[in-house]
Design brief:
The two termini are 27 Å apart. The chain has a five-stranded antiparallel sheet, covered by helices on one side. The protein contains two helices and five strands.
Amino acid sequence: MSTPDRTRPDRSSYLAWRTATTRWSDDDVYGHLNNARYFDLIDTAVNAHLHEATGTDIRRLPAIGLVAEVSCRYFAEMGYPRPIDLGLAVERLGTSSVVYRIGLFQGDPDGAGALASAEGRFVHVYVDATDPARPSTPIPAVIRAAVEPLLG
């Protein structure tokens, strides 16, 4: 049985960035960011990047990315009221799928916030949105052009 990689990535592991605001309601009863909020941030980091980098409404493309897998490794607590920096990189770019890594950082980039508090893994599989059966299909050129620069 292999031991999972618990290495905390640093900011140099990611190529595109955005900042998310935390809200009072993001914290759970224990006073730290609720698990569901991590997944919301991971999804937002990927889809906001695609929207901005393509300049198009990605929901209207003839091929759309469906989430095939999402996971999160937790390293340190985060919570309200500090903002969260979201770093994005592409781990693998296939014919019809993309595997993203999303680093979540909170705090001073030169201090405690230099290492990820969490890292998400997010897999999009592209399907033909014009076919009710939604078979897998090649990644649209506009999406491929937006994610190729993130290969790390």
